[in-house]
Amino acid sequence: MAEAAITSQRGGRAIVARLITDRARLRDFLEGDRLFAAYALCDLEAREFGKTRWGAAWAGDELVAVVLEYAGLSPQPLFVLGDNDGIQSILGDLIRPRAAYVAALPDQLPAVAAHYRVDPGPPMVRMWVDRTHFRPEPGEVQRLLPVDIGDLNRLYQLGFASWLPSSAISQGVYYGIRIGGRLVAAAGTHVISPAARLAVVGNVLTEASYRGRGFATATTGAVTAELLRFCDQVVLNVRSDNPPALQAYRRLGYQEHVRFEERLIHRLGPPWPGLGPLRRLFGRREITTR
Asked: Fewer CB atoms < 10 Å away: N or C end of the chain?
């Protein structure tokens, strides 16, 4: 059964918004900026697609905007791309989370702000590398296996809010550094798309007492090297106000693609009568956010 379409007049033209499950059509649109849309492209893989909900907007026969909502506890990840009128229509009528953690280009944030209060925050930097530009960093790293999930989660408890399942290692790529048998640094992946030949590095963390020794660079480099065996590009996110991290990734050959906004947003007004504002403790996480 076809999804109901909602038509609105914006900017002097008719915008038709509806839910979409056509992965081929979505892939064609997202490939227009594959480095910024890396997470979304990876979410088209069968393992991830069932956890997503997609809204699309058309102006005539042209697909002009896409919004992706990823399943999970609120605030869940939200990705927007395309024409502002289309984004505004989708968020107004179809994809309406009470709170979300949105990724948007700066010019697209006003379309989000039409329906959401946008919390402040520093811009994020999307960086990328390919085999031509990659410069490996030597280090005493080791590939982590599912049996290492306990050690990995103990490390992440120093700065992360949730525990990873062992499938994160078995389905991804993780490398770590041990000192005296204890895992003190690690890097891994968020999502991988064999179909798009694209992957996202994340979950990079070094125990505080071991920082400044190049461990994050070494582990990230090991993960990147493995991914570039079967991916054309690898991307990651880093806060724009973190010069040491930016420099570390540049040493590996990562380049800046775009600066974007990754913000916590709250729906303007209660989505249902009588429902008060959402109040939820939420901490920003660099690189580890989807």
From this structure: N
Would you state the structure tokens that stand for residue 74, as one six-digit string? 């609120």
Asked whether residue 104 is domain-assigned, the answer is yes
The radius of gyration computed from the CA coordinates of the chain, to the nearest angstrom, equals 20
**How far apart (Å, rounded) are the C-alpha atoms in residues 229 and 233?**
10
> Rounded to an integer, what distance in angstroms lies between the CA atom of residue 196 and that of residue 37?
11
Of the candidates 205, 217, 200, 213, the residue with the CA atom closest to the CA atom of residue 251: 217
**Could you count the other beta carbons within 10 Å of the beta carbon of residue 160?**
15
Cα separation, 228 vs 198, in Å, equals 9
Host domain of residue 208: 127-257
- Look at the pTM and tell me if it is higher than 0.85: yes
Give residue 63's Cα distance to chain centre: 22
CA dihedral sign of residues 71, 282, 125, 173:
negative
User: pLDDT (tens digit, 9 = 90+) per residue, 176-215?
Assistant: 999 999 999 999 999 999 999 999 999 999 999 999 999 9
> Does pLDDT of 128 surpass 70?
yes
Q: Are 141 and 253 in a shared domain? A: yes
